[in-house]
Amino acid sequence: MRLSELFRLVFLNLSQNKFKVILTSIGIVVGTATIMMVIAIGTGGKLEVAEQFKNLNAGAIDISYESSSSSSSGNSGMPGGGGGFPGGGGGGNQGSGGMPGGGFPGGGMMGGADNRINQEDVSLTEDDMDDLLVFVPGLSDATISFSTKADCDGGELDDTTNYTIAGVKDNYATLSNMELSIGEFMTEENEENKEKVCVLGYNTALEIFGSAYDAYDGTVYIDNRPYTVSGVLEEMGTVASGISPDDAIFIPYATGVKYLTGDDVSPTITLIAEDVNNVDSIITYATDVLLDSYPNSEFTITDAGSKMDAAMASNDTLTILLVAMAVIVFIVGGIGIMNVLFVSVKERTNEIGILKALGCKQADILKEFVFEASCISLIGALMGVVIALGITPIIEKFSVRVELSISGAIISLLFGVITGTIFGFYPAYKASKLIPIVALNQE
Description:
Elements: H1 3-15, H2 18-24, H3 26-52, E1 60-64, E2 93-95, H4 126-135, E3 139-153, E4 161-168, H5 172-175, E5 180-183, H6 188-192, E6 197-200, H7 202-209, H8 212-215, E7 219-222, E8 225-233, E9 248-252, H9 253-261, E10 268-273, H10 279-293, E11 299-303, H11 304-347, H12 349-357, H13 362-396, H14 406-432, H15 436-441
Parallel strand pairs: 4-9, 6-8
Antiparallel strand pairs: 1-10, 1-11, 2-11, 3-4, 3-7, 3-10, 5-8, 6-9, 7-8
Helix pairs in contact: 1-13, 3-11, 3-13, 3-14, 4-10, 11-14, 13-14
């Protein structure tokens, strides 16, 4: 039998049983739509994680301390709260216990440690940051930062509004992978002179001034003191901690301590590892250095790399679960095709006998039924892709990021067709093995 005749025969059989074809392909429809959505949601999840952590340095390590009597001035989920950037902070490993060997190598006397022994009044300082830079090997840089809340006014604001204020060093933008839309970040001179300058997050600039351009060189009143806007950040989106640089106001660290927090500040020290593979050993060294200055104290130490890995692992786990569900649906759909083809073989026994009597070979009968199974699967797969495209807007309304792609659609189609073909092979094989005389006499 020529291939064209074979396809014509398959087309006639399918066109005469349209409703049966649709019912048979439902499992493939659902499976294909599921696979396509799994790929799209998995890709969207990875992009979402990447965007959430795009302002984090993979080698960043956040160190913070918060006693039970600490005020809210130093920990509000941003720098200084261990929950924002650059290291991300918030939960993770805690340094605890005494130092191995009874002290820091070299005698353990470090600058600024004289008055830092009171466990109930631990406040990390720039001296601690310098100690860590000196005594912890494998660091490329370090910074110290804090965050607090303050009433702000100025620009187009009708009423005083409460904003997150972050006190940071001049190297903070570089370590946090921040880019400016206009202007420049704080300088070392701003820090040394305790100047009242600020950099606005993207959303903050829009809320106060209407645009980044209008915000530049404008004046913002923070706690009733005028601050000149030296720059506006590019839009960065939501970070892993749920707080974004877009909604913050950045000022020089020394300025913030002088005018906003005073000594009542609980900052975060962020260390940057030269090699991300050495983060664990750096955490150990840093813990030992801090315990030499603050015996019996427990510090919250988190690294961005572990948080990124955990987020990626969580996304991968969800993807695997969805894939498993899609595979189960495909198997059910394939079994449905197999059952229908078995029934079809039973109903068309006489037809098979006639074809064999006319000279059709076993291979021709096998091809006919396999092609029918493949066509049914292809129809179901195409319907599944269309359904996936249709339900994407609905899924996105539940704040789930979906990234559809041509490759995802092709993979879904292949899965559908291959599944139907595999499950349709055995009924086709059984049909090809029918003896012509027995088939013709079958009622």
